[in-house]
Amino acid sequence: MTEYLLGIDLGTSSCKTALFDTDLKLIGSAAAVYPTLYPRRGWAEQPAEQWWKALVQTVRELLDLHGVEPAGLAGIGIDSMGSIALPVDDCGSPLRPGLLWMDRRSEDQSRWIDGHLQQLLWQTNGNHSDPSNIAPKLLWLKENEPEVYAATDCFLHGNGYLVYRLTGEYSMDISEGGLTQLFDTRSGCWSDELIEACGIEKHKLPQVYPCSDIVGRVTGEAAAQTGLMEGTPVVAGAMDNVTSALGAKALRPGDVYIAGGTVVAVSACLDEPLFNPDLHIYHHIIPGKWISAAGVDFGGGGLNWFKDLIAEQGYARIEESANSSKPGGNPLIFIPYMVGQRAPLWNSNTRGVVFGLNPSVSTQDLIRMFMEGAAYGARNILKIMETGGINTRRINMTGGCAIIDMWPQIFADVLGTNVRIPGETDVATLGCAVAAAVGVGVADGFEAMQDKICSAKEFSTHQENRSYYQEMFSLFEQLNNDIIGNYDKLAEIFPEDQI
Question: Which of 148, 156, 163, 157 is closest to 52 using CA atoms?
Fold first, then answer.
């Protein structure tokens, strides 16, 4: 019987499930969308039940469509969007919707951690305190919803909840640890000192597992709902950015993966945990390796926003239109931090800035400007990494920014290096499948799976554009540095409670 692997990616707007054979050939995929709740400005929540319904729907759809016998599934891997805080009771039932990565309600708690625990946090965890992370969210729940906090049996992450629904076992994968701010990022375990200093009860936190370790097996109840076979092994999984890095072949020190979606996330593989105050740091799926990361938090979202604004329906038309605008034809700079920014700026008040407008600027010029702005933000992150001692090398890119050829070409020109597009663009589910393959023993290791992952395209730098983009990036840096202090002034003029 042919063996298969199931990769499940719990994203911000949808759950994507993909079926692979053990040679990592994609058999098929399915997706189910769900909404995000925004009860107040700066809050972002999702009911966990909708994640489970999406998993059930997509798994059943794949098994039925491709006629796969559930007994043929060798293993299941699950990732999810980063930094979710979901409280569940002693029956494993959610006590409230999960707080998402984009939820900013815990600004006060994050500042408290900065003011009281900054040195301990830096020495132990290596991550900047930010409202997107887990510890500030747990403190917010403890202070503002004490009845929920008191009733919580365990705080789960997104993939941890889905693993629980499949297996009945609580877990948190090691890659999520860094951004909890309660974790010793070097050793890969909970930090008793940070947990105690934050006033969080350790018994409310799940057991930490290596990403490819088997947490449990599909229960009879879960099998009845999903169509899976009872006893199918489920590995711990990882943060989506980590499974994507694995699926994009960022396995060796200095390998870079750019996830060009709503957030343009830039990640580099490390063989030691280098702490940098401008960057995130957390464990890779691969034991003994870490990932250093930062993002342009609305990098790809800026162009999508503009596309909707001009009522343009598809990206093919966007590319066709933008191709009529040439580099330097109408020099514009877009500072792309439209919605607040985590690493590397750490400022919730940042906003987008356009420089160089004149009456001859066309819609096509503005489209190119949004693309270039995302690339400048990525280059800024790579410069920070290199200054901090990371020797970056091979760059792979996926996501919406890689769908049309013009955008990765702009990245290659701005970054001054080749940009590869993986053959399987849904690298998050692919990385989940690789983790499952290693965990259940159908693969000899992560390196052995690397040759099965191919590249589809490669974009090299157009040297005729290189000097132009070098000058424009220098101007981008200067403008960014000059304006950085004014975001807070703008926020003071229009306080959140008056908008």
Answer: 163
Q: pLDDT tens-digit profile of 203-221?
A: 999 999 999 999 999 999 9
Instruction: Output b/e per residue, 83-97; b: 16+ Cβ within 10 A.
Output: bbbbbbeeeeebbbb
Q: Could you tell me the residue ranges of all domains in the chain?
A: 4-236, 249-498
For 26, the token pair is 């994609």
Residue pLDDT, tens place only, 106-135 = 999 999 999 999 999 999 999 999 999 999
In degrees, to the nearest 5, what angle opens at C-alpha 229 toward C-alphas 224 and 235? 110
For residue 300, which of 208, 375, 412, 353 has the smallest C-alpha distance?
375
Show the tokens assigned to 295: 């993002």
DSSP letters, 138-156, are: HHHHHHH-HHHHHH-SEEE
Domains 4-236 and 249-498 agree in fold: yes
Cα dihedral 318→322→324→325 (10° resolution)? 160
The CATH homologous superfamily for domain 249-498 is ATPase, nucleotide binding domain (3.30.420.40)
Dist. CA 394–CA 487, nearest whole Å: 35
Cis-peptide into 344, omega within 30 deg: yes
Distance CA 194, CA 147 (A): 23
Q: Which residues pair with 173 in a beta bridge?
A: 209
Token pair recorded at residue 398: 């996926």
- Phi/psi for 346 (5° steps) reads 55, 55
Query: In terms of pTM, does the model score above 0.90?
Result: yes
Q: What's 197-214 look like in SS3?
A: HHCCCHHHCCCEECCCCE
Q: Quick one: pLDDT band at residue 490, thresholds 50, 70, 90? A: very high
CATH of domain 4-236: 3.30.420.40
